[in-house]
Design brief:
The complex is a heterodimer. Chain A has two domains: 43 residues; 233 residues, MetI-like (MetI-like fold), CATH 1.10.3720.10. Chain A is 76% helix and 0% strand. Chain A has twelve helices and no strands. The C terminus of chain A is likely disordered. Chain B has a domain of 188 residues: Rossmann fold (3-Layer(aba) Sandwich). The chains are: A mainly alpha, B alpha/beta. Chains A and B meet through helix 7 and helix 8 of A and helix 2, helix 3 and helix 6 of B.
């Protein structure tokens, strides 16, 4: 009888272990499949021209996506200069100043904003930037992505500031520092590595967004004429090329996907290295 | 261990005449508390505390955990104001001026504090000590450098750190970090230095260093120390106050408290019969 139970339990153990093992392999497998597929297709069609040349007119082969790479950088720069300061300062307020009730409301609002579909945020940017200015622009795309960055920027800032031990705040105040001096010269510096990497991960997260850019930044086959003109970005370029009928354009889309993913991975890895090397005090 | 001057005070057979146990009456009072009540929400943590802290002396507060001694210490530089839902009643006098009505940052600059757990900032050793000067508007490099060296010397840390002032403070040992925090507090030249169990996380050697340091510092500043360690109070303090359940049971010359206290509660506590 005892042997029976023991056998049964051992069998269940083996089954469950194999099941969870298989699922783990599947999860990791999906990631590596995507990476591998992109690597094979993307790297094959990747060449120096991709980084230096403009797209060729329909029907011609060759060309590159130099304008889209620069365009993505410009749109992300605008997004960052909107999302990071707004989110950071709101996060500082949330962590250091606000009362409980207001903090609850603010946190809830931010979480809701985080749940708003990206296409809806695109519509908002279209309504408040594109329509009044009467044309698509890098600015509109940046505003859309900037709004998308805010919720995570707020919550990251709040989390990292809360992780700074209260003893450090008391130490500063006991020396006659004002609240603002304490926050900005002791608490924020103690959390700076976490904050930097959090913002980088946040940027990496919106770098691949396509939907909000479709009707804000629009796209452009040439160099954009300044910040207020339609501009090409990598995700929109991938979208346009992938649905095009031409096999050569498909190859370019693969290459763009590969470049975009590599850039995002690079930002991710750098951010995680900054976290790992941050001052011990912020992790106490 | 046997060489501590105050330790024999715990031994009744080594008693000195009662007259010598009295605190010096001539010294002026640096800080005075009159009828201090303190509330965490609806919980009253301090009941009607009145006492005088003489200038250039070491005053120790002893008592069991939760008796209010730390709360009272934190009332004296108004650190408790940073906590939500707290309230203080009564009067505190710093050099006969109402402390509770002064500018709070000014109070904290004049009444410094060292905490139970060392709390260096995530900055270099130099910047830690310079912090108090910088937030108080001192920018001149030579002044800051001079003050940093002086404070670290007073905190008996200068020789250990003078070649690594730009290293992060977190690289120091626990005892060094606590002395750094003392140096940081000394840099702004406080008139009163409050210490909240500064040695509770330190080994005996580091503790001894800090005690020696406090003994010397009382020439420059008035020292108030909260401690769980009765031997420490006996070794260091000129005056000792005994707290129990939010009340000040008695405060008197240290030897008097340890050898011939007026109140039965004090006697029970210092002789280990408490509870």
């Amino acid at each position: 009888m005892m042997m029976e139970i023991s056998k049964k339990r051992r069998a269940i153990n083996v089954v469950m272990l194999s099941l969870s093992g298989i699922c783990t392999v599947l999860v990791v497998g999906v990631l590596f499949f995507i990476l591998g597929y992109l690597l094979i297709h993307g790297a094959r069609s990747l060449n120096w021209d991709f980084f230096t040349k403009l797209p060729k007119p329909a029907g011609e082969t060759g060309g590159g996506m130099a304008n889209a790479i620069v365009g993505s950088a410009k749109v992300l720069l605008i997004a960052m200069s909107i999302g990071v300061p707004l989110g950071f300062l709101a996060g500082v307020y949330l962590a250091e100043y606000s009362g409980r009730t207001f903090a609850f409301i603010l946190r809830y609002t931010v979480d809701l904003l985080n749940g708003v579909p990206s296409i809806v945020i695109g519509i908002v940017a279209y309504a408040v930037v594109v329509r009044p200015m009467k044309h698509f622009s890098a600015l509109a795309g940046g505003v859309a992505l900037g709004i998308m960055m805010i919720p995570i920027a707020v919550r990251t800032t709040e989390e990292f500031l809360r992780a700074v031990p209260n003893a450090m705040r008391e130490g500063a105040m006991a020396l006659g520092a004002t609240k603002a001096q304490t926050v900005f010269t002791v608490v924020v510096p103690a959390a700076v590595s976490g904050l930097t990497s959090g913002m980088m991960l946040n940027l990496a997260r919106v770098a691949g967004e396509t939907a909000p850019l479709l009707f804000t930044a629009l796209g452009n086959m040439f160099w954009a004429k300044g910040w207020l003109a339609p501009i090409a970005t990598l995700p929109v370029m991938i979208y346009n090329y992938a649905i095009a009928p031409d096999e050569d354009l498909h190859q370019q889309a693969w290459a763009a996907g590969f470049v975009l993913l590599s850039l995002i991975l690079l930002v991710n890895i750098t951010a995680r290295m900054i976290i790992a090397r941050g001052p011990a005090s912020s992790r106490r | 261990m046997a060489s501590y001057p105050g330790q024999q005070a715990l031994n009744p057979t080594a008693a000195l005449p009662a007259e010598t146990m009295q605190p010096a009456v001539q010294t002026s009072n640096k800080l005075s508390a009159r009828n201090i009540n303190f509330f965490y929400g609806s919980f009253q943590a301090l009941h009607d505390i009145s006492l005088d802290i003489p200038a250039n002396k070491v005053t120790a507060f002893i008592g069991p955990s939760g008796c209010g001694k730390s709360t009272f210490l934190r009332t004296m530089n108004r650190m408790n104001e940073a906590l939500r839902n707290t309230r203080v009643e009564g009067e505190l006098l710093l050099d006969s001026r109402a402390l509770l009505e002064m500018d709070v940052t000014d109070v904290r600059r004049r009444v410094g504090m060292v905490f139970q757990k060392s709390n260096p900032f995530a900055k270099s050793i130099f910047d830690n000590v310079a912090y108090g000067l910088r937030v108080n508007g001192i920018r001149k490099k030579s002044v800051i450098e001079e003050a940093v060296e002086r404070s670290l010397t007073h905190a008996a840390l200068w020789t250990e750190v003078k070649d690594k002032l730009n290293k992060p403070a977190s690289a120091l040992s626990g005892g060094q970090q606590q002395r750094l925090c003392i140096a940081r507090a000394l840099a702004v030249e406080p008139e009163v230095l409050l210490l909240d169990e500064p040695c509770s996380a330190l080994d005996p050697i580091a503790t001894l260093k800090i005690e020696e340091l406090l003994f010397q510092l009382k020439e420059m500043t008035t020292i108030v120390i909260v401690t769980h360690n009765m031997q420490q109070a006996a070794r260091l303090a000129d005056l000792t106050g005994f707290f129990l359940l939010g009340k000040l049971i008695e405060i008197d010359g240290t030897r008097k408290i340890f050898q011939n206290p007026k109140k039965k509660e004090t006697e029970d506590y210092v002789t280990g019969r408490f509870g």
